[in-house]
Amino acid sequence: MKINSSNAKGLLIKFVIKSVILTVISVLLFSVIFSFIVYKADLDLKYLEYLSFFVCAISAVITAYFSVKSFKNNGFVMGILSCLPLVLYSFINLLINGNNIIYFLIKLLIILLFGGIFGLLSTKKSKKFKVK
C-alpha cells in the first residue's frame, strides 16, 4: 500500500503542533497549580524544585497520550518524540537558571519514560479476537 505523502505531511504537522501546544498548556497549568499550593501552604521554595518533577511527569503523560492518539503503531517512539518540546524547555531552564544537572537528568529520565509508556498506551492497535 502506497502512503500518500500529503497525508503523511499533514499528520506530521498536526503531531508537531499538538505536541508544542499541549506541552505549553500543561506546563503552565501545572506550574501555576503547584506554585499556588506552595504559596498558600506557606512552604519553602525548595519544594518547587521537587514539584517540578511532578510537573514534568504529568506534562509528559498528557502530551504523549493526546499527541500520539492518531497513530496506529510505534507508540513508544512517537511518545518520546512528542515530549521533545518538554525536554527542550527543561534544558533551557537548566542553562538560564543554572539548576543542578542531576535534577535535569532525573527530569529527562522521567519525561522519556512517561512519554514513551503513555505514547504506547494511546496508539490505535487493532486487536483481532478469534471467536470459535
Structure notes:
With 132 residues, the chain is mainly α. The protein has helices at residues 5-40, 46-67, 75-82, 84-97, 101-122. The mean pLDDT is 87.
Q: Secondary-structure element order, as H and E?
A: HHHHH
Q: Counting H and I runs of at least 4 residues, what is the number of helices?
A: 5
Shape: elongated
What distance lies between the first and last C-alpha atoms, to the nearest angstrom?
31 Å
**Mean pLDDT across every amino acid position:** 87
Strand residue percentage = under 5%
Work out the number of β strands: 0
Based on CA atoms alone, the radius of gyration comes out at 17 Å
Segments where pLDDT lies below 50 for 5+ residues?
Answer: none
Return the structural class: mainly alpha
Helical amount: over 70%
Features:
single chain, about 130 residues, mainly alpha, 5 helices, about 0% strand, elongated
Describe the secondary structure blueprint for this structure.
Blueprint: H1 5-40, H2 46-67, H3 75-82, H4 84-97, H5 101-122
Helix pairs in contact: 1-2, 2-3, 2-5, 3-5, 4-5
Summarize this, please?
The protein is built from five helices and no strands. It has helices at residues 5-40, 46-67, 75-82, 84-97, 101-122.
